[in-house]
Amino acid sequence: MDDQINCPQCNSENAYHDGSLWNCPDCGHEWNPDTAAAADAGGGQGVRDANGNPLSDGDSVTVIKDLKVKGSSLVVKGGTKVKNIRLVDGVDGHDIACKIDGIGAMNLKSEFVKKA
């Protein structure tokens, strides 16, 4: 294929085109090359959600899978909506600071959320 694009996340050559998005079967990443090119032209990468959408302070996000809370028996269920996030310099990849109802303040990795 002459229009083949490698996955920007894992650099896999197995990416395929599906509608307006490209999908990677190896890592599960999906992206729009037009949006990615515009973001690259803008300069900074910034923090992006699981679908490649840019996140900013004050956004609302939805957790995409069940997440165990380390050091606790609590679980953040997939589909939980988190409002008013703050972007922070990531410690171990945790680049979102937020408060979740019923759990409290915690940090999340942007790869486990999608913009709401």
Automatic annotation (TrEMBL):
<dbReference type="InterPro" id="IPR004624">
    <property type="entry name" value="YjdM"/>
</dbReference>
<dbReference type="InterPro" id="IPR013988">
    <property type="entry name" value="YjdM_C"/>
</dbReference>
<dbReference type="InterPro" id="IPR013987">
    <property type="entry name" value="YjdM_N"/>
</dbReference>
<feature type="region of interest" description="Disordered">
    <location>
        <begin position="38"/>
        <end position="57"/>
    </location>
</feature>
<protein>
    <submittedName>
        <fullName>Alkylphosphonate utilization protein</fullName>
    </submittedName>
</protein>
<comment type="similarity">
    <text>Belongs to the YjdM family.</text>
</comment>
<feature type="domain" description="Protein YjdM N-terminal">
    <location>
        <begin position="6"/>
        <end position="32"/>
    </location>
</feature>
<dbReference type="Pfam" id="PF03831">
    <property type="entry name" value="YjdM"/>
</dbReference>
<dbReference type="Pfam" id="PF08274">
    <property type="entry name" value="Zn_Ribbon_YjdM"/>
</dbReference>
<feature type="domain" description="Protein YjdM C-terminal">
    <location>
        <begin position="47"/>
        <end position="116"/>
    </location>
</feature>
